[in-house]
Amino acid sequence: MIDLTRLRTFRAVLAAGSVHAAAVNLGYTPSAVSQQLQALQKDTGLELFIRNGRGLAPTGVARRFAEEADRLLGQATRLEELAVDLREGRTGSLVISHIASVGVTWMPAVVAAISAEFHDLRLDLRLWEAAQGRDEDVDVEICVAHRDLPDRPGFDVEPLLTEPYVAVVPVGHPLAGRREAALEELAGWRWVDNDLTRGTCRQILLEACAAAGFTPGFQYETQDYGSAVALVAAGVGITVMPRLSFSSVRADPAQVTAVELSGAALRRTIMVRSRGSLCESPAVRRVLEMLRGLADDGGVTAPAGDVTLGSQSF
Asked: Do 110 and 160 contact (CB within 8 A), yes or no?
């Protein structure tokens, strides 16, 4: 196998015209350069230089050999640069799984910042609800904390935002003028379901309703927040969802309004789990920094020691 250091020394001698000049350029001693040349000739079995007075002259074989050496050294340089870019997160790929509401409200800003700062980094964005936290190649996961959340060994966990649920009602509804309402006040109304996957957010809601002493009267079933809000705007019922989810719908305030629901039981905590082996990646650090800033702008952060995230408490 040809040693790249010896190959670079060989090219330096050819470019400088002498061992002494090459040694000066490389910061080596002339004897060290001569030893590198001798070792390269032994490795290749080629006579690359001949004595010419007190110096050395390249052979015809050396010049032909140098043409290929230039290509190889160029590739090696590009490979070294790629390794640095990969190590510092400037290229390669990053897989980010996120819940639907975060995809609409936060991810555009995150993607814009990452694409501006890490031009060659490919982002693979996935809807968390599709795999429910069971896809193994995720690097960063933005999800809702719950006791049934699958663990991710080797991942760092950080709470981002604890937020209330809201009741989305038509503007003419009796609750429309209220800033806040109790969950049990919704017991007698027709509800519009909005959770296709019957996931964590719906489970939190059902558990809070059970604690309040009633079961929601789901009269209509939809598969996303936008459709549910559209049915509310049509006056067929009410729907309940986390505050950020309502923000993601871009609802018409002339048709519907959101009333915050009181009670500590009806809250969700959005958290981020990131692969521990990527904790020094500049791109991952930037993603986490962006998420923290967006969460600070979007709600109340979780108090320390007050939220259980999967099997981990904060």
From this structure: no
